[in-house]
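All the exercises in this workshop are built on plain-text protein records. A record pairs a protein's sequence with a compact description of its fold. Backbone structure tokens are a discrete shorthand for how the chain folds in space. Once this layout is familiar, the rest of the handout is easier to follow. As an example, a complete record with its sequence and its structure tokens follows.
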Amino acid sequence: MLGGYLSMILWMGGMKFTLVSRAALLNQVSTILVFAFATVLPREPLTPRRGAAIAMATAGAVLVIA
């Protein structure tokens, strides 16, 4: 519980003290990394639905950069 609370406080602090576009990009990239790590580490299957979600998240991150 303490780890979850501490990570939430740090995440909110990071969102507060950076540019909104940069914070949104980092938030989106974290979602992509969670999918990637779930596929690699515990060997969860990459279903077409998950693949589509990764593709849309990546496209969103690219749109924010551009």
Notes: The mean pLDDT is 85. DSSP finds three helices and no strands in the chain.
